[in-house]
Amino acid sequence: MVAIGGISLPRFVAPSLHRQSFSPPAIGFARFPNRISYRSTVALLDEVEKTGSRAAIVNRKVDGLVKSDCETDFDATLGNGHARNSGKILGVLSTVGNSTNIKWHECSVGKIERQSLLEQKGCVIWITGLSGSGKSCVACALNQILYKMGKLAYILDGDNVRHGLNRDLGFKAEDRAENIKRIGEVAKLFAHAGVICIASLISPYRRDRDACRAILPDGYFIEVFMDVPLEVCEARDAKGLYKLARAGKIKGFTGIDDPYEVPLNCEIVLKNNGGSPCEMAEKVMSYLEQKGFLQA
Ligand SMILES: Nc1ncnc2c1ncn2[C@@H]1O[C@H](COP(=O)(O)OS(=O)(=O)O)[C@@H](OP(=O)(O)O)[C@H]1O
Ligand SMILES: Nc1ncnc2c1ncn2[C@@H]1O[C@H](COP(=O)(O)OP(=O)(O)O)[C@@H](O)[C@H]1O
Question: Which domains does the chain have, with CATH numbers?
């Protein structure tokens, strides 16, 4: 661990911190001296307008950009994939679920361009585990480490999203399924935006987690299991909810009278006594680095 500005940071971030300043990068073209200039951007955009496609940018390999397989996958899962799955394509209009006569709009600034801008790859880190297992602490520690490295992450915390988007949902199985589905879809959009999206929610049912995995390209859904026994979570009881559940004042509480299905083949397992949240986040960082998510 190293202590910088009163914040303890794990070893993982120390080398880069020695080399570079802490300030978050400025936004705008000025930040990318090694990238395409404003003048040539305008020229390219003119060409895009003329040809009506993003191919001008992609095929000219500006800044080494090439449309990758993964982007094709993302495009498919975002729009056309759904239309194709619905089996009903009416010329350029599609029917997706109950949405009739809709059309997918393309833009010349795509995932590859955003990745290049952010110097990272968007993905979803899905942290699952019992209440009190340490999901939020790990999510926050991970977010801090990434921020200090100049990487953009965003946390979708079950508790927080239930304050807004999912405020209409309770804790019955179908409400949890809807909660997880919506957060999965939002997380996919963040990943497509190039952001490292950290979803932290109990997500107790395997089927619901697997459905979120299925809407992302292979490798872009990273499931992290907080492997902390119920007794430990209950002893922590940070919010006093286990006590209420044991007293019968909360019904259907995960681990008490509602099931938690342990992941069978997740990417990362964080065991109880595996160290502080920061040390656990360091393990996730190693995975991200090894898989190339910390570069464009
Ligand atoms: N019945 C029941 N079961 C489990 N948890 C409950 C329940 N009622 C309220 N809470 C509080 O809601 C938080 C879990 O919300 P999630 O959106 O993560 O749950 S789920 O994924 O839809 O199962 C959870 O937060 P965490 O402790 O951070 O996990 C609890 O604070
Ligand atoms: N790695 C850890 N080791 C020991 N205690 C922890 C650890 N991570 C979290 N805790 C404790 O557990 C409590 C619940 O953590 P939290 O992140 O809120 O869990 P969750 O989001 O899964 O409900 C916190 O009050 C914290 O003190």
Answer: 53-108 (no CATH), 115-290 (3.40.50.300)
